Amino acid sequence: MSIGVIGAGKWGSALAFALSEKNSVFITSRTPRDLDNFVTLDEILACEYLVVTVPAQQIADWLEENFVFKNQKILVASKGIEATSGKFLNEIYEKYVPDENIAFLSGPSFASEVMQSLPTALVINSSNEKLAQELGDLFPSFIKTYTSDDVIGAEVCGAYKNVIAIAAGICNGLELGNNAAAALISRGLVEMQRFGIAYGAKEESFIGLSGAGDLFLTASSPMSRNFRVGIGLAKGRTQKEILEALGEVAEGIGTAYALHDISVKQDLYLPIAREVYLTLEGKNPHESLKDLLTK
Ligand SMILES: NC(=O)c1ccc[n+]([C@@H]2O[C@H](COP(=O)([O-])OP(=O)(O)OC[C@H]3O[C@@H](n4cnc5c(N)ncnc54)[C@H](O)[C@@H]3O)[C@@H](O)[C@H]2O)c1
Ligand SMILES: O=P(O)(O)OC[C@H](O)CO
Known about the structure:
The protein has about 300 residues and is an alpha/beta fold.
């Protein structure tokens, strides 16, 4: 079985490493890289399985410009909601791939720890249970995989937790303490569950690995890029300054803009996501805190 990983950033590289324990794994990216088994896009598209890690804000264009469906079985490993359209990833992919050929990866997973073969648990979410099981069997022994048919729940969890992580980073950067951090994460879980259920997600997804698990991981550690964005905002840095220093993607930014537009269009109460959006737009984080505590 051959696996083609698309995107050679932190997550693509980590998944290529992990999956190579039991499979022949090839990798490609926009720019040629000096990596083992780096191949061309055409060679990748010929693989039986594809693992896609192109960031959520870029995947629609990437698919339009590069993708050819050849009955591949696809695991989407990105997390986010497209800012320009408000589309979830499954809505972007459905134009190119039938539901029975696609699954979405979720759960608490820092790439750097996967690269160290540290114990990790992930969920493979698909309407095709057989495909989810098949993809799960590709993973190495240090990664325990579960399956779920709650694609929407997994997507909301993976995307929304990045926005809450930015808020948690702001909380940390303002040195508000552990009580505030715990309150923010707890209320953030409630907010993302409320949003997800409005889109048909299953409640149980939010108390499992995809929801509480990934939220706890990402909103509790400066290992998270999104958490570090929040710290930068608390220190009064601009988005541009923060991203230049980060040098990697922080999906919570685009998703915060997406959630803001969705909340306005659909009159949804998303207080934490709203304050993250406003802080990204230059609102003083101290003002955001006051509004969150008083409204
Ligand atoms: N790093 C992690 O710990 C981790 C874990 C789970 C999920 N993810 C998710 O995986 C996705 C990728 O994150 P990452 O950590 O690899 O980020 P990264 O910043 O390390 O790498 C992003 C990769 O995407 C590529 N890319 C950017 N724009 C592109 C475009 N227009 N066309 C093609 N390729 C493009 C870049 O070249 C780079 O290789 C994100 O959605 C992220 O949320 C990351
Ligand atoms: O570094 P982050 O904030 O993009 O988080 C990485 C993973 O999504 C954690 O599960």
